[in-house]
Amino acid sequence: MAVSMETFAQWKNTTLEKLDQSRKGSVDERARHVVCLLNSQERFFTTSSCSGRIVLMDGPPEGGVVQKKDCRWLFISHDPCRSEDLVSALSRSSGEAVLKFEAFVLHVQCHRLEDAQLLHSVAVNSGFRNSGLTVSRSGKIIMAVRSTHGLEVPLSHGGKLLVGAEYVHFLTQKANQKMEENFRRIHRFFQILQAALTAESPDLQRAEDPAVTPGEQENQAAVYRRRRKRQQSQTHAERDEEDSCSLDDCLDLFS
Amino acid sequence: MAVSMETFAQWKNTTLEKLDQSRKGSVDERARHVVCLLNSQERFFTTSSCSGRIVLMDGPPEGGVVQKKDCRWLFISHDPCRSEDLVSALSRSSGEAVLKFEAFVLHVQCHRLEDAQLLHSVAVNSGFRNSGLTVSRSGKIIMAVRSTHGLEVPLSHGGKLLVGAEYVHFLTQKANQKMEENFRRIHRFFQILQAALTAESPDLQRAEDPAVTPGEQENQAAVYRRRRKRQQSQTHAERDEEDSCSLDDCLDLFS
């Protein structure tokens, strides 16, 4: 079912060339080592990435379908931010401002389904539990790394701020905490991925990361063990809960 | 790579029997027609579902890793709710209360990868853009229907409310709007799924849904056309944006 390695390599070349021609032409600093490690592997290439961000968007007043073009960016940061900057950006709102923390997102095209499965296990075990595969009819297999980790707070209506500066300060702390946890998960993703790849090919040249210990080479088997356990418990637990809903999100809500 | 239909049928029986023995033993009202339609098909069975909910959870004060058992439910509703009820529930917070809107979630085990691909296309085209597949090494293929549609607002700290009742009223309206949009998407999911299944087997007995028009029988081809278009544009667009991030969420933020 997988396409030939030649076809895959052509897709990879085309995609990575396009990246170089793009406006920004670079990958977020915090995700670069992950992107480089994946692109150094014949069987993977990344098609998009964002290391995580705190954004403040201004949308039009309610009613009707909102088009992307109608949204305006008031603030964006890929690092922890200061509440003064958010308060200042909020003062420019003329519609419905919403503060969001969006976690790490990564799309990786994979040669074979097994490659995507490995990556999916790595992602889930690093804390990116909403990760999943897309398989197109033409044979393109994409693994999307996604988190359950978020924050989405409407803050103004018709340009009028609905909360005080103290609350914005509190939200900034929350967003920054989530950003730090997000960085820890990216680091974990890199470590587990590197250990899994090294276990498969012990002669793999290690990419730059200071914190990989020898014990992590045994991580690949552990990745699968934990994954299997999680799948078994999911089927049982989720249905047994009071309202057929998973309570798991609670874990992510406050961390 | 798919398991035999006999093995799949056994898994299905075991899972559906367990459901009947569970504490609640029933599926959320608003998702029932979707769950029934899927379970009526030999190649699918649902392993968990939640039609969408507005929840207020109380977590412990900051610091350390938060365990599920440390979270307390102050309020839960699978329908639009009243702000008075939220304000009243908030008064019982003793830690960090967070208001969340969580959209429709559905996990479906699929016999073959093609079955999961079909379902994935239906989900994405109904607006559930964070949907994705999980493929285990034992051959279990799960399609998870997930939305980008959310709301997550911290509201108290150490039991002390950080916002006014007027803001809680505003948030209730936002959450209720998202709930209504979520219902529209579930309805769309049901319609597109039914049309896709009917196109494959014209003699399929239609499940109860009042709003399916004959034209929707042509939807299956359209599902794939739209999906293909989306995939092509994604690869190009996401990298071209100012910061390698997708702006797509803007669409969902305010709708």
UniProtKB/TrEMBL annotation, chains A, B:
Catalytic activity, reaction form: 4-demethyl-7-[(3S)-3-amino-3-carboxypropyl]wyosine(37) in tRNA(Phe) + S-adenosyl-L-methionine = 7-[(3S)-3-amino-3-carboxypropyl]wyosine(37) in tRNA(Phe) + S-adenosyl-L-homocysteine + H(+)
SUPFAM superfamilies associated with the record: SSo0622-like
InterPro entries recorded: tRNA_yW-synthesising, tRNA_yW-synthesising-like_sf
EC number, as in UniProt: 2.1.1.282
Keywords, alphabetical: Methyltransferase, S-adenosyl-L-methionine, Transferase, tRNA processing
Keyword Methyltransferase: yes
Region Disordered, residue ranges: 203-246
GO-annotated biological processes: methylation; tRNA processing
Domain tRNA wybutosine-synthesizing protein: 10-194
Entry annotated with the keyword Transferase: yes
Pathway info: tRNA modification; wybutosine-tRNA(Phe) biosynthesis
GO MF terms, alphabetically ordered: methyltransferase activity
Function statement: Probable S-adenosyl-L-methionine-dependent methyltransferase that acts as a component of the wybutosine biosynthesis pathway. Wybutosine is a hyper modified guanosine with a tricyclic base found at the 3'-position adjacent to the anticodon of eukaryotic phenylalanine tRNA.
Homology family: Belongs to the TYW3 family.
Name of the protein in its database record: tRNA wybutosine-synthesizing protein 3 homolog
Source organism of this protein record: Oryzias sinensis (Chinese medaka)
